[in-house]
Amino acid sequence: MNRDLGEVVGLLGELGRRGVSCSIVDVAGLDEASVRSLYYDAVGASFLSRCEIRGIFGSEERDGVFFGREIPALLIYEGGVAVDVYPHKTEFGYVTIYDCLKSMINELDKRGVCS
């Protein structure tokens, strides 16, 4: 579900060098209300991007229990609103954090945005 996590920090650094604002948040340092708020951002983003996250970050009984803890998450914000979340599931399968970041870098390469 989340492959190549060891490369994710490097990919975030690459995006940062290309002008994309990135930050890493360790939820271990957050209170439960803050983690829950981020999870609700993720739920909203999943509706906007029409993808499934519930089975990834929790269960019917314990919604979001794994969010950012056992399962790392990537939230993409535009104008202060979460518009996408990774990993997620579409009708075609899972899309990982790594997949998203590689796709973003490839798109920047096509546009000629170098580090």
Q: What is the helix tally?
A: 4
What overall geometry do the principal axes of the alpha carbons give? Answer: globular
What is the chain-wise order of helices and strands? HHHEEEEH
Number of strands: 4
How would you describe what is shown here?
This protein is an alpha+beta fold. Helices cover 43% and strands 15% of the residues. It has helices at residues 5-17, 32-48, 54-57, 97-111; strands at residues 74-78, 81-86, 88-90, 93-95. The longest helix is centred in the middle third of the chain and has 17 residues, at 32-48. The radius of gyration is 14 Å and the shape is globular. The mean pLDDT is 93.
Give me the secondary-structure topology.
Blueprint: H1 5-17, H2 32-48, H3 54-57, E1 74-78, E2 81-86, E3 88-90, E4 93-95, H4 97-111
In short:
By secondary structure, this protein is α+β, with helices and mostly antiparallel strands. It has four helices and four strands. A two-stranded antiparallel ribbon has the order 1-2. A two-stranded antiparallel ribbon has the order 3-4.
Features of this protein?
4 helices, two-stranded antiparallel ribbon, 115 residues, alpha+beta, 4 strands
